[in-house]
Amino acid sequence: MPFNPETDLRIERRFQAAPDRIWRCLTEPALIEAWFAPRPVVTRDVSLDLRPGGSFRSVMDVPGHGEMPGHGCVLEVVPGRRLVWTDLMRGGWHPNDGSFGFTAVMEVLPDGAGSLYRANALHRTAAQKAEHEKMGFHEGWGAAADQLGELALTL
């Protein structure tokens, strides 16, 4: 996937867990709830219709900010390898009012006995990328990725 450093953010992690375990964590709602946001944020009520145009919903309970519902749209699914979704739309390809406005590309690649996990956040503008960085993208998505790797080892 082409990476544009002007508008895109990326984290990568090498995990000991096999790709199929990482994939389960990316696509099974109960497992998503266990890793998707950095602690102490709680992710709950996750639903994922794993097909292009499918809905991806969650609610995050953020200390000091309350309940933050999210609704996105799945754009691409390559089983065991790649999941792409956006908050620019909700399920069924409908425009999403009030979205932050990014697309997430999550990839799982075999890496020896483990996996390489790569998550990209694609933004419309450099200013939007900078805002996401300032909000703590690397710390937040990095902590969530570490939780993902820990969870996958327990499967």
Task: State the gist of this model.
The protein is built from four helices and nine strands. It is of the alpha+beta class and 155 residues long. It has one domain: Alpha-D-Glucose-1,6-Bisphosphate, Chain A, domain 4 (2-Layer Sandwich), CATH 3.30.530.
Describe it.
It is a single chain. With 155 residues, the protein is α+β, with helices and mostly antiparallel strands. It has one domain: Alpha-D-Glucose-1,6-Bisphosphate, Chain A, domain 4 (2-Layer Sandwich). Helices cover 27% and strands 42% of the residues. It is built from four helices and nine strands. The chain has helices at residues 19-27, 29-35, 126-134, 137-153; strands at residues 8-15, 42-48, 55-62, 66-78, 82-86, 89-90, 94-95, 102-111, 114-123. The strands form two sheets. Strands 1-9-8-5-4-3-2 form a seven-stranded antiparallel beta sheet. The chain has a two-stranded antiparallel sheet with strand order 6-7. Helix 1 packs across helix 2 and helix 2 (29-35) packs across helix 4.
Secondary structure elements and pairings:
Layout: E1 8-15, H1 19-27, H2 29-35, E2 42-48, E3 55-62, E4 66-78, E5 82-86, E6 89-90, E7 94-95, E8 102-111, E9 114-123, H3 126-134, H4 137-153
Antiparallel strand pairs: 1-9, 2-3, 3-4, 4-5, 5-8, 6-7, 8-9
Helix pairs in contact: 1-2, 1-4, 2-4
As for the number of domains, it is 1
- Helix and strand run: EHHEEEEEEEEHH
- Percent range for helical residues? 25-40%
Report the CATH superfamily.
Answer: START domain
Structural class per helix/strand content? Answer: alpha+beta
The proportion of residues in beta strands is 35-45%
CATH class: Alpha Beta
Q: Give the uncertain stretches in residue-range form.
A: none
CATH fold group:
Alpha-D-Glucose-1,6-Bisphosphate, Chain A, domain 4
CATH architecture classification: 2-Layer Sandwich
Strand order of the largest sheet: 1-9-8-5-4-3-2
Rg, rounded, reads 15 Å
Shape descriptor reads globular
